[in-house]
Design goal:
The chain has a three-stranded antiparallel beta sheet with strand order 1-3-2. A hairpin with a 3-residue loop joins strand 2 and strand 3. By secondary structure, the protein is an alpha+beta fold. The protein has seven helices and three strands. The protein has three domains: about 45 residues, no CATH class; about 25 residues, no CATH class; about 110 residues, Ribosomal protein S3 C-terminal domain. The chain starts with a helix and ends with a strand. About 45% of the residues lie in helices and about 15% in strands.
Length: about 200
């Protein structure tokens, strides 16, 4: 008798384990049955399934002639190169304009406020987003804008703020503005990096 035959005989002799193994379902079989039951119960109750929106979009795209791998969609969107290596004369990042925007936002939102560490943590993020949007809308295009605001309480301490950048000196620049009160100091920075 071969080794494999001995193993099979040993399993059948130990209480019919072989038949029990056949009766047990694998984990993936149980999960697929469970998901099928869940989907059928959801569809019976009138509720949409979890992937219902995706299925309807795929059906719509298939009706329009697109395949499931979306190759046709990728081919339909083709951008031509512009061969621009620098910004137009009227769309260069203006440091002075950005400084006015930063100082205006900081003064408008922080004037007359008392320092509160919990409130100012969220407020600094909001101010950075607002400054970023206003600089973007100031007439520059093809620039990546990074803005952040730091608000520090005055407690008779010194605070140094530094940054380093690796960029193209002819197109990229930064602007900073400081707003001070008796209780705190707010520093706003904007970095503009041209991308082609």
């Amino acid at each position: 008798m071969s080794v494999q035959g001995r193993k099979n005989n040993a399993i059948t002799e130990q209480g019919g384990l072989n038949s029990e193994l056949k009766k047990q379902k694998s984990w993936s079989d149980k999960m697929s049955e469970k998901s099928y039951d869940t989907r059928s119960s959801l569809n019976r109750s009138g509720a949409t399934s979890r992937f219902g929106r995706l299925r309807s979009r795929l059906k719509t795209l298939a009706a329009l002639g697109y395949s499931r791998n979306f190759r046709n969609i990728e081919e339909s969107v083709s951008l031509q190169p512009t061969y621009k290596m620098g910004p137009d004369c009227n769309q260069v990042f203006s440091v002075e304009n950005a400084k006015h925007i930063i100082h205006g936002v900081l003064e408008a939102y922080l004037k007359g406020k008392d320092y509160d560490a919990k409130r100012f943590a969220n407020l600094s993020r909001t101010l950075a987003e607002l400054i970023k949007e206003r600089v973007k809308n100031s007439g520059i295009s093809r620039y990546k804008i990074v803005a952040y605001v730091t608000i520090v309480e005055k407690n008779e301490q010194c605070c140094n703020h530094g940054s380093r950048c690796l960029w193209n000196v002819s197109t990229d620049n930064y602007a900073t503005s400081v707003y001070e009160t008796k209780q705190f100091t707010a520093v706003g920075l904007v970095f503009a990096v041209y991308f082609d």
